[in-house]
Amino acid sequence: MLKLYDYPQCPFSQKTRIVLAEKQLDYEKIHVDLRKREQFDPSFLSLNPFHKVPVLVDEEEGDDQRTVVYDSTVIDEFLEDEYPEPALMPPPEDAAGRARIRQLEDFADIAFVLPAGNLLTEHVKREEERDVERLRRAKDEVDRAFLLLERELAGGRQFLGGEQFTLADAAFAPRLLLLVSRDVELPEGARALRAYIDRLKNRESVRRLDGI
Question: Is 168 exposed, middle or buried (0-12, 13-18, 19+ CB in 10 A)?
């Protein structure tokens, strides 16, 4: 039995929920209310000492042992290893392809998700209340990510893994679609990126997300 400790609006939790949906895995969702600081409860800290969601618990039926995994990237790779079909990574013999997907996922987590959150925070404020410099920095970083995606998708790639939907797509999708829904402008002429966004919107695992 899989249990996912998460918070609906957390992009890292959303990333893992996409992977669970892609693999058509049943799981129990356990809400951790970050606004009430439930991530600091001793019971949650016993699962993740870094007090962050998501956390995945994998309990075998009839077995007292359980596997606890935290950090969305580690969780998603655990799911890929434990439940390999459908594959969300290139095959093991394609070491270069797997490294590329890992690098893109890392870029999403470190250089896209957080700047996108900062941009959205300032974007929804009234103009006179915005931190102009914070907004500019965030927009520059988000635009850099947009251009990276445009380059990676060039040449007719359907997803970041080519025809294959991957862990990297799951990492980019939540914040990318939220930015578009809040009318954040995409770079002019970014045809590959716009088509990619349309494909993500129509993908069942992404459409099932709450919190965006």
Answer: buried
Domain encompassing residue 42: 2-82
Token duo for residue 16 = 């893992």
Do 115 and 71 have their domain in common? no
| Single residue among 82, 112, 128 that ends a domain in this structure | 82
Q: What is the rounded distance in angstroms from the CA atom of residue 205 to the CA atom of residue 39?
A: 26
Separation between Cα atoms, residue 173 and residue 193, nearest integer Å: 12
Q: What is the mean pLDDT of the chain?
A: 94
Cβ pair 18, 206 in contact under 8 A: yes
Q: Round to the nearest angstrom and report the end-to-end CA distance of the chain.
A: 27
Region 122-145: mean pLDDT is 91
Residue 110, judged by CB atoms within 10 A of its CB (0-12, 13-18, 19+), counts as exposed
